[in-house]
Every structure is written in C-alpha cells, then in structure tokens.
Amino acid sequence: MVAPSFEPPVRVFPDTGALMRAAAEQVVELAALAIASRRRFTWVLSGGSTPRQLYALLATRSYASRIDWARVCFFWGDERHVPPDHPDSNYDMAREALLTPIGALASNVHRMRGELPPVAAAALYEAELRSFFAQSEAARAPAFDLVLLGMGDDGHTASLFPGTPALLENERWVIASDGGEARGERVSLTPVIMNAARQISFLVAGASKAARLSQVLRSNAEAKGSLGEAPPELLPVQYIRPVNGDLIWLLDAAAAGL
Ligand code: 6PG
C-alpha cells in the first residue's frame, strides 16, 4: 500500500520565547477542551531542555491559573534508567519545573519507574496505562489528549533511536530501549501508542536542530510507503504519524533556519 505524502503543519516563531508562549497557549486550549468533553486531560510529557522551558512557563501564575490542574493526568514519553531524584531523570525535571510549582496531585502523576531494570519498567508502565485507560490486553491503543515530543540532533524522539527495533514494534505500547554508550538504557513509549493520540506536538528550538529538521520536513513531504513498510533509513521522528489525530511542528526561527 502506498500512503499519501505526509506534510503536517509547521509553525515558526521568531524566537524561543514566542515559541514557548505559543506552546503554552496550546496546552491551555487543549486542556480546556479535553476537560470540558471528557473531564480530564491526559498529557504525555517529554524530557529535554526545550520542554523544560515550556514547563517553567506553564508554572508561572499567568498560565498556571488558566488550567484546572486537578484534572490533568501526567504521563511520560520516555525515561532514563536512573532513580526518580537523579539529575538525568525526566520525571525529576518535570517535577521540579512544573509538578511541584503547580501542586500536581500525586494520584495524577504516572511516572515511568526509571529505577527498575528497563524491561521490567516498560512492562509495569504498559500495565499502568492499560489499567488507567481500562483497556484489556487485546484492546487497541488509547488516545492521549496531547503527546509532547522533542527531537534530538540525530532525529530521535522520546527514546526511540535511529535504526533500533523499537521503531518497528507494532504491539507493545512501552519498550526498553538501548541508546548506546552515549544515552544508555531507557524506557520509551512506542509509535503504536503515540500515534493513537489526539494531538502530537513537536517542540524544537535552536540552530543545532536546523540541519536534521530540514532533512525530516523535506523527506516527509516526499515520503512514500505506509508505516508498516517503512524503509529502515527513516528517522525516529518520521515514525510519528497520528492515525486519527493531529500533528504539528512548533519551531523557533533558529531551528527552522534551513
Ligand atoms: C530525552 C528525550 C528526548 C528529547 C530530545 C530533545 O529524555 O532525552 O525525551 O527525546 O526530547 O533529545 O531534547 P532537547 O530539547 O534537550 O534538545
């Protein structure tokens, strides 16, 4: 089967500050919509320095007061194999920048257990997601309201790395992933569950991302072939294609420079 080319919308902001404000507005809007229609907002957080700036902005009074945080359920797209208070922990970063300042309810915080061996942590997280969404083994992947993602300089996203088998996973929602010597062992959501989301937003800032981004966006526009038949040279970010939801790239001018 040949899928149509995939050209998600791209919005470019003059600087990182404007990018963060636009991303924060998107979170405010999506949270209000989800809470009005489903009584809760399910949000998958990302690690990395770019989302950290968004979390810090959302924790300021002018944004924090516009979200009904008691109805926001937090999940993670990936985690490193470290304890939850480790400086490399994605949970710890979000806790410090957002969860503590806004007073998130512990019962709404669904972290990956980075302290466990990644295979066990992945199985546990998948069980937690199935229980949260009340879906049995056989049920198809549930739709998160928002999956927020970053892109690494090598085209990785969450902890899905180039050329790794996790990219071709078509059943499991959570896997143990090997980032090699540089990135170590990780736990990551798979494209199976991320692609079921209502909204996927890539947040990318900085000139170091420009070359990879231009490669990704150009070849997205030329892409041929369905997800299942994806050629191995596709980058991890290119495996992120929502089934029914929307995807947007939010960029600053430096990242979009090429
Ligand atoms: C992680 C991530 C990862 C990140 C990108 C972009 O924990 O490392 O979740 O996928 O989002 O590497 O990170 P920066 O925003 O720091 O460039």
Nutshell version of this structure?
With 258 residues, this protein is an alpha/beta fold. Helices cover 33% and strands 17% of the residues.
Task: Give the CA-CA distance, first to last residue.
Answer: 32 Å
Judged by helices, strands and strand pairing, the structural class is: alpha/beta
Please mark out the parts with pLDDT under 50 across 5 or more consecutive residues, or reply none: none
Name every ligand kind in the structure: 6-phosphogluconic acid
Main sheet properties: 6 strands, parallel
Rg, please?
17 Å
Q: Mean pLDDT across all residues, rounded? A: 93
Measured by DSSP, the beta-strand proportion falls in: 15-25%
Give helix and strand order, one letter per element, not per position.
Answer: EHEHHEEHHEEHEHEHE
User: How many β-strand runs?
Assistant: 9
In which order are the strands of the major sheet placed?
1-9-8-5-2-3
Number of helices in the DSSP assignment:
8
The gross shape turns out to be: globular
- In helices, the fraction of residues equals 25-40%
Describe the structure.
This protein is of the alpha/beta class. Helices cover 33% and strands 17% of the residues. The strands form 2 sheets. A 6-stranded parallel β-sheet has the order 1-9-8-5-2-3, covered by helices on one side. The protein has a 3-stranded antiparallel β-sheet with strand order 4-7-6. The model has no long low-confidence stretch (mean pLDDT 93). The site of 6-phosphogluconic acid (6PG) has 14 residues, from helix 2.
